[in-house]
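Task: encode each sequence below as structure tokens.

Item 1
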Amino acid sequence: MLATAGFITGYIIPFILVLSLLVFVHEMGHYLVGRWSGIRVTAFSIGFGPELFGFTDGHGTRWKLSLIPLGGYVKFYGDEDAASRPGHERLDAMTEAERAQTLAGAALWKRAATVAAGPVANFLLAIAIFAVLFGVYGRMIADPVVSEVRPDSAAAEAGLQPGDRLMALDGSKIRTFDDVRRYVSVRPEARIIVTIERGGKEMDVPVVPRRSEITDQFGNKIEMGLIGIVTNEQSGNFRHVTYTPVQAVHQGVIETGQIISGTFRYIGNLVTGRMKADQLGGPVRVAQASGQMATLGIAAVIQLAAVLSVSIGLLNLMPVPVLDGGHLLFYAIEAVRGKPLGAGAQEVAFRIGLAMVLSLMVFATWNDISNLIG
């Protein structure tokens, strides 16, 4: 009984709170831009399935909390379901004035803006969270100077030496040791040209990071690229930096952009086989991470929320029908053709998209359970 209560309070509740916040922001993006575009909203739900409780506002929108806390939706007037699939028979029976209040009846650019607003809201939330964290806490940084080269590592094989200062990676300038870690970790088995400064001279050294599995402080196994260099307080000149509000926002933009680029790189690694698909996480792993971060304090949970917000934004931009990216793909096709896809083609695409999303969720959840058991 105590173990069950601890699991609920330590993992489930933090997970639900974090996910609900991110879903609320995402759906609020859809809602606000949709209302601004003159589209009527009939429901705003946090969660799926049966309604637990809610209320209807003066505009006729039902705001509700639903049973299954694994997402949410905004349902527009004239939609067939929560995936904003248009109800063609219902639309055909509407007057011109009624149709103008639907998502399907709005101008193409208004539909695109309404759909894109959800992921954009997630990205803006991540930027805001990182900006607050940088503004309040600042951060510790270290210069990219090598204090030790691990024996038999990729760096040792390439000839890197203690005292080398890393200046650039594949031509991109770096400023901190953390920049090196970020760049290398998502490039296992990919050749990197490392520009170093040694004895006052610059030289280019090719290094191939090795795919390695590390264990974090919670015992989770993480696969990444490593080259085998270390810095210390003396060589790296460890220091705490603070930021003005404007600088904090700029750093928030950079941090969010790095997460986005790192995610695309990870997907590329999956396609090329440089990383295993068992790194994909579903709701079980997110719940586990939420609980683990909660043990480190509120700042760690907030930081996790920012990372997950970016992930939700990117996931929804995938060009898969039933997701925001699928709708945007339909709109792009409509812009090229001069007319939307037929109702039959859209229906088939939505069914395929739903099957793809459900399959991905099952696969990710199975990975989560397998990793927990194993």
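Item 2
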Amino acid sequence: MMGKVTMSHHTAASQTAVTNAFIDYYMGDANDAQIKVYLYLLRMMQAGLSTSVCDIADKFNDTEKDIMRALTYWEKKGLIGLEYDAAGHLLSISLEDIPEVHDSAKVTVMPGSRAIKASSPATPAIAHRPKKSDEKENQQLVFLAEQYFGRTLSPADIQKIFYIHNDLEFSMDLMDYLMQYCAEQGKKDFRYMEKVAENWAEAGIKTTRQAKARARKYNKNVYTVMKELGFDNTPAPAEAAYIERWFNEYGFSLEIVIEACSRTVLSTQKNRLQYAEGILKSWHESNVSSQEDISKLDQSHTVESSDNTKASKKTSGKNNLYLQFQQNTYDFDALEKELVKN
């Protein structure tokens, strides 16, 4: 688990607002998660507060991997700096001045502001912004996506396509297969396609051949999981898509999925796919990635259960004492005689 990281910046202390340069030239190319992370860093900087990858993930109900992707994205853009220790743990995040845009026109940085003003009306060319020479390619991508997903794309959909193509550096062939793969899985959500693409990128997939080999591997895993859950039938498309999510979207290894299946079989005879989904979704939200992580979660739940049991017994004991007090019997004749004496 990553700890707190030091926040520092290299800009004038009076500058706390989001610059026009960020809005005009960087925000449009970033996806929703990346924008949220950058704005949150600005907010923390203004308040002089520390944060961590874990805190940011909790803030936006996302995974630490997703937050690190966003941080790496902004580092590549030159808007932040990341410092790591020898073990590869993130130590500090620094917010940098927005770099000058790359354009033949002369640019002037206005004093007291990070806003950048060009001396000519030409639009500056920003890194990762689609070039004019790629315009035909971009149109082809949009056309392909609309054919595979059967609808007109929204600006957010198009943004995700360009993010995968430009930032994750997927070739046209790989983009084509990615869309085909998602459509065949019955997944026409562009957020799902983005997750698949990021998992492929993390796995070092650069070609269609590599992607197809990974898909065949997952198809084999689907049959393995069905067997582990006690099913002998060929999985229906909906069942296969369910299981694919555990590998593709959640990013679990076969070992972790089989562990969830074993627990499912021991717990229920009905709705086993849904039961296993509940386990794996919980593990995904807890950032489980190994058997060791599962053991830690089990220990945590055991302690919590033990504490609840003790509390229950304590409450039960108090109730018994109360009942015993209420059930006491008294010799009212003796009490009356005692009162008469007094």
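Check on item 2: The chain has 14 helices and six strands. The chain has a mean pLDDT of 76.
End of task.
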